Amino acid sequence: MELILTLFIPLAGAIILLFVNHEKHNFIKYFTLSVSLLTFIVSLFLLSKFDFNNTNFQFLTEAIWIERLNAGFRIGVDGISILLVMLTTFITPITILSSFSAIEKRNKEYYFLLLLLQFAMTGVFVALDLFLFYIFWELVLIPMYFIIGLWGGKNRIYSAVKFFIYTVVGSLFMLVAIIWLGLYVGGNILHLPGGFTSNFMQIRDVLSQNPIPFDIEKWLFLAFALSFCIKVPLFPLHTWLPDAHTEAPTPGSVILAGILLKLGTYGLIRFNIELLPHSAYFFAPYISILAVIGIIYGALVSAVQTDVKRLVAFSSVSHLGFVVLGIFSITVEGMQGAIIQMVNHGLSTGMLFLAVGILYERRHTREIAEYGGIARVMPAFSVFFGIAMLASVGLPGLNGFVGEFLCLLGAFKSPVLNSYLFTIFGATGVIFAAVYLLTMFQKVVFGPITNPHNHSLKDLNKREWAYLVPIVIFIVWIGVYPKFFLNYSEKTVKSVVSKVHTQSLGNTSTLNNLNLLKNIESNLGAKK
Amino acid sequence: MAEYVFLIPLFPLVGFLVLGLFGKYLKKESIIGLIGNLTVFLSFVFSFLIFLELVQNPIEEPHIVTLFPWISTGELHIDIAYQVDQLSILFALIVTGVGFLIHLYSVGYMHNDRSFYRFFAYMNLFIFMMLNLVLASSFLLTFLGWEGVGLCSYLLIGFWYDRKFEGVRIEWTGEAGNKAFIVNRIGDFGFLIAIFLLFVNFQTLNYTQLNQIFANSYSNLYNSGLIWAITLLLFLGCTGKSAQIPLAVWLPDAMAGPTPVSALIHAATMVTSGIFLIARNATLFALAPTTLTVVAVIGTFTAFFAATIGITQNDIKKVLAYSTVSQLGFMFSALGVGAFVAGVFHVMTHAFFKGLLFLAAGSVIHGMNEEQNIKRMGGLRNYMPKTYLTFFVATLAIAGIPFFSGFFSKDEILWKVFDSGKIWLWVILAVSAFFTAFYMFRLLNLVFFGKERFDMHHIHPHESPKIMTIPLQILAFLSAFGGFLGIPYALGAWLGPNCNLIEHWLEPVFADAQKVMVLNASYAAGLSHQIHFEEYLLMIISILIALVGIFLANKFYSDPEWSIPKKLATGFNSLYRTLFNKYYLDEFYFYVIVDPLLFLSNKILWKFFDSKIIDGIVNGSATVTVKVSELLRRIQTGFVQNYALLMFGGIVAIFIWLLFVI
Predict the structure, then answer these.
(1) First-last CA distance in chain B
(2) What is the pLDDT of residue A314?
(3) What is the pLDDT of residue A509?
(4) pLDDT value for A304
(5) Residues of chain B with pLDDT under 70
(6) Count of the separate structural domains present in chain B
(7) Does A482 sit within 8 Å of B189, measured CB to CB?
(8) Which DSSP category does B531 fall into?
(9) Which tens digits make up the pLDDT trace of A440-488?
(10) Which residue from A66, A397, B288, B413 has the least number of CB within 10 angstroms?
């Protein structure tokens, strides 16, 4: 029940908003805020009832829609999705609070879309039906497209269209893969009357016994991976991101960075790793190479940006590289690191975007050169901005370090990647992160005030305090006592990783690349 | 008592939180100063109590106090846990003791600063992080402190963030802070990879467990590639934090911060963390003779490199900064020849005299209205006698005048390096010691003696208040007499076998390392409690070297015209320019690494690859789609006849295909 409520309260709120007079601006704002806060509170109950010793899906709900296709409304959460659901319910009220000043026109439509977006994003994380997953996946696009296209900056139309088409191209491949999977499992193996199934758990269990021929599995893997990697975004599929981030209004950027990108990394774990383990083994080194390139590339390009928002956007490419590297290390440490890093990135990069938004609202420019000496006039703001910056840099004691460390450690010990080079190159990203973030911070916050416009800037107001403080609490909490968060996913990740290893190593006949496998086995043997 | 070790870092943490969160509302400097000082003082008291306990009941194995799990997933289990042993407590005493004196001094120095509370909050945070670094029971917690002190250093260098600071491509103090943090990060990269290697190969990051593994299976690990890689990577971390070649470039620019910060962070404590890390893992480093040689060579060359720069600098703090780099080089040379005790001993004496030198320099700057150029000082001994006297004591100590603290520790290093058979290193170190004596007495002459070279109408030098001079006097006492804690056997044999108190104290810590070091033939020769004739000879030589340095400095700079140094500077102009510009190391890094990287990122990666190639393909495919659609649109004429014609053609085509192809 808690899960259904968490999913549907935002939708219900969105529908109610449709019937509200669009001139009641304050009512719309506070109503939306209450809806999202209520969702957050309900999700806390969800969290408290979640049993992290249970590696199965919990809070299962099932309702068949199309019997012939065995497609239905199936939802549930496990250790991998629970923290991401919580991240969604936590970030949304914050973005709504930040929207109060960032959004100045068409309030009703905006808040309607925002709640719809929350519904769709939560849906992606909890859907246990491929059909349903696809619907939610595409549904996410629509509100985001309008949020960028209607409330964005100067170049918003180009960015919105680019964002939309990029993602749709990817998801079409995913659709083909979903149909193929449904037909294969429902028809060829289970011989269901409709010849099709989209039940995730069913497909997963069947595939663990009857692996797909490797030649075909590879193509399925690529189809899913393309779709998810565009969303992440993985180098070189990232070019929609800087445009979308830069042009989106502040709350849009926060949601993009905070939650939307995680749909991709979540999908990689849920589908590419869990359903297609052999190919995951096969492709892990290649994807990891792209991840490492992304870490370095994103950081280097970040370092030469003059637009502070674009700088933070490119930093996302770098940070998400760590997540992908952690996932495809296929180790407990790496995948745990990836999950906690998804949360971390949502908090710290989300907060960086909020900070940039706070500046933007006061000065209406994103050019780094326009600022300088902000610490003098906005001391409280500078502290928050600094904390977000340091969390992003990966300073131990704050959240970013825990995630990056675990991702890199996982890649280092990974029998699948089987090379220290991934981590060695990936870890240079830690150096570059300091370069671009500190330099930006220096130029914006420190130094003297050179631009007379900056003399009269007002420090944070109460509303801004209200949405920054909770993020800082979590940044410190995860940094100092990450065990609380790691516990939720620990058991599930362990079982996923061990399943992937046993399946991939148990069915050697299906693997074409025997050499690789032998490598892995000898490594595992050597480690024991 | 040892189980309360967690209180040592806890007090400064509380201080940081209280001052950081509520400091703005505490209007009075006295209250802020009291909180900031009390927390560090309490830490010192607890360190001292634990120290006393250890004196009474010496322990062979470290005492571990676990607080709560930190990062724990999969096979990785790291706790927030502190380790009490002779080494960690010694460092805790130095950090909190010297740290407290510097806090006390800062109350006077920072008087009337608009961010008085922020300063003490950062300083408390620094002490907290430094205590984590030295009290940690595992590599990862040390790494937390390691990066944490880097953060505090960054915050404090840029403390006066809207002040100018001159450096190579540095204009503002904050940029100097950036440089420090980023250069340190390069070292931290090495540290991090070393941690991964340790964990993957030994499944633990706890010092005690690792030490046991190293001590038990040293015959397998000795001189192995793995150990070589780990130690070298850790040493890369050390070169960052302790400002050695090739990462020494940040420390001189770190002088942009308030002077107490330079004293605490960039002289007495933080920069010695590299020494601590190697001392903490002495057994590990003992297993890697090749790395130790690298450490010794780098240390020696850094000692020389920085000392030669020191003789040309005109900023009082820069001279001291290069002196610090040089002295750290001495410490690394000691570690590199396996003289771990000598290295740690020099950390301690250096903390006394270098802390003092910086604080005294701060007192001078304070009394001179922020003037830092020694060419515009002179004759100050009449204006600030206490500062002068304490500065003089510290100068004697660092120059190595007998029975001052630096004499004992530096001499032990020189002797150990000589004894290890690395004569060339000894020669370079001895020359560096000469330069040390020279630049210190040059400084002393230019600042305190001779004629006043400043504008007497505008600057009225005055002695600093008591709250600043009392710490100076305490440190002067320690600089003068601290050396007696480590009397070499050659001089103190008549006192008994344990005349070298610090060596005796650290014996259990380095016992395993000694066991391993014996494998190294050249080291084995140097062990034993025998008195060597050479030791006395070397002692006399190094005293003479110091005296010559002092004599020359006095001769050069007591002459008000500075005719000899001026002649030398013009006669060897290119050499002088090279030294004055720090061997152009900064410029080298900018031209060879930073600029090409920025060019690559900006022109090639971003503006070409990102915008032209990837987006070219993306937008290109969109354009192609539009163009193709425009072509196809022509078929959609809207005339039914055309459609019927096409339909007819299609049907004919299908028929032909059915008839002839199938």
Answers:
(1) 96
(2) 92
(3) 41
(4) 92
(5) 521-531, 662
(6) 2
(7) no
(8) P
(9) 999 999 988 888 888 888 899 999 999 999 999 999 999 999 999 999 9
(10) A66
- CA B596 – CA B600 distance, rounded (Å): 6
Q: Which of B552, B580, B608 is the last residue of a domain?
A: B580
For residues A128 and A57, the answer to whether their CB atoms sit within 8 Å is yes
**CB contact at 8 A, B328 and B372:** no
Query: pLDDT band at A528, cuts 50/70/90?
Result: very low
Eight-state DSSP code of residue B464: P
Kindly identify which residue of chain A lies nearest to residue B596, measuring between CA atoms: A300
Identify whether A71 is part of a domain: no
One domain, residues B303 and B443: yes
Closest CA to A314 of A243, A211, A229: A243
> Among B268, B473, B478, B310, which residue's Cα sits nearest to residue B388?
B473
Confirm if A320 and A233 have CB atoms less than 8 A apart: yes
Q: What does the alpha-carbon distance between residue A394 and residue A403 come to, in Å, rounded to a whole number? A: 8
Cβ pair A451, A370 in contact under 8 A: yes
Residues on chain B touching A385 (C-beta within 8 angstroms) = none
Q: Chain B contact for A406, CB < 8 A?
A: yes
pLDDT value for A253: 92
Q: Is residue A59 part of a domain?
A: no
Q: What is the pLDDT of residue A41?
A: 95
B583: left (phi over 0), alpha (psi -120 to 50) or beta: left
pLDDT in tens, A225-245: 999 999 988 988 898 999 889
A398 to chain B: which residues are within 8 Å by CB?
A: none
Within A160-281, strands assigned E span: none
**Nearest-angstrom CA–CA distance, B404 and A267:** 68
The pLDDT of residue B213 is 92
CB < 8 Å to A166, chain B? 618
CB contact A4 to B (< 8 Å): no
Q: Look at residue B83 and give its three-state secondary structure.
A: strand
In DSSP terms, A77 is beta-bridged to: A58
A residues 233..272 contacting B (CB < 8 A): 236, 238-240
Tokens representing B101? 């004196």
> Of B563, B580, B597, which one is at a domain's C-terminal end?
B580
The answer to the question of residue B263 being in a domain is no
C-alpha A463/C-alpha A452 separation (Å) is 26
Give the contacts of B314 (CB within 8 A, at least 6 positions apart). B373, B374, B375
What does the alpha-carbon distance between residue A344 and residue A339 come to, in Å, rounded to a whole number?
A: 9
Q: What pLDDT was estimated at residue A512?
A: 42
User: Same domain for B446 and B546?
Assistant: yes
HSE-CB for A132 with a 13 A CA cutoff: 27
Six token digits for residue B475: 């440190």
Q: Check residue A93 and give its pLDDT.
A: 94
If you measure CA to CA, which chain A residue comes closest to B195?
Answer: A409
Please tell me the pTM assigned to this model.
Answer: 0.92
- Tell me the pLDDT tens digit for each residue of A78-100: 999 999 999 999 999 999 999 98
B656 and B537 housed in the same domain: no
In whole numbers, what is the pLDDT of chain A averaged over residues?
A: 89
Contact status, residue A514 vs residue A523, Cβ threshold 8 Å: no
B7 in a structural domain: no
B73-92 residues touching A, CB cutoff 8 A = 73-76
Both B318 and B449 in one domain: the answer is yes
Structural domain including A439 reads 295-489
**Residue B574 and residue B622 in one domain:** no
How many Cβ pairs closer than 8 A exist between chain A and B?
Answer: 134
Structure tokens at B319: 């001279």
Concatenated DSSP letters for A187-222?
IIIT--TTS---BHHHHHHHHHHSPPPHHHHHHHHH
